[in-house]
Predict the 3D structure of the following.
Amino acid sequence: MSADVGKVADGRGVAVLWDRFKPDRRKALYGFIAAALIFVIGDQVEPGFASGSGVKTVLVVASFVALVAAGQTFVILIGGIDLSVPWVLNGAAVLLAVTAAGSNSRAAWAIPLTLAMGLVIGLVNGLGVAFLAVPAVIMTLGMNGVMQGLTLGFTGGFTCGSCSSAAPGVVHTAVFGSVLGIPAVLIILFGVAVVVTLVLSYTTFGRQVYGIGNNERASYLSGVNVKMVTVLLYGLSGLLAATAGILLMGYGGKATLGMGDPYLFESIAAAVIGGVYILGGRGHYLGSLAGAIILTAIISLALAKNMPDYGRSIVYGAVILVILLIYGRAERET
């Protein structure tokens, strides 16, 4: 300890602290630096892009991706994936619209009901993966289809009278309200980020998650209840997708069919470019959060420049590939 203090005093402390900075944290840091650079470059391309209001708008839109990416990060860390998030998110928004019908009093029980729906769907995914040994891709993709069918059947093909109900006022406030000038949805995201970070970094459960991702059999032999942890993580993914659905309904004013479709690719991409290893065991949610901001900033900038869909797709894919190539090079050098 005294040796390290001496190194800090003579200028070598930065190197010591950097060495102690885990690779996962470094990637998260790189992600936030990359996001800042995109804002700086974007402001040169589109004046005002990095203004206070511009940054706030990007962060609000990124919050929905970041919420879904939180759940996606959980399951990717154990080597899984959740392909059911589009229609869990969409189903949650539709369920809230139909049950709350724009009423705050009805929202008091409709919101918990909607969150419970997301949690249950996620737990069913986890049970299928953990206890029935169904591959995560098959289980969650099948569940996505089930949720799509249930949503369309429940609403009669989205023709029911209450399907287009406006978001309850309390949900609208949760998105557009503010505290000390900070949008409420960003405060919610900050709370989620703190909880997820603490769980992954400082709890036994978090260590079990990384352990399963690195070596599932070794974790099992060391006493970790692998199946239960797996079920819980998929449950959290469903819960967070439903949360995003509720808030997205408040943002858009009402539920629409297909509103969850973009969040499958974006949530996975956010986690991957944020440094979460797609095969599990490495990464951190802070990286996914940075990834969500990067993706949203790129899309927002492309939309501001009226870039066509194919152009946005090319830029989108190119950015992901470049970041992954940088990560791969960095890992080979360490």
In short: The radius of gyration is 21 Å. Residues 181 and 210 are 37 Å apart (CA to CA).
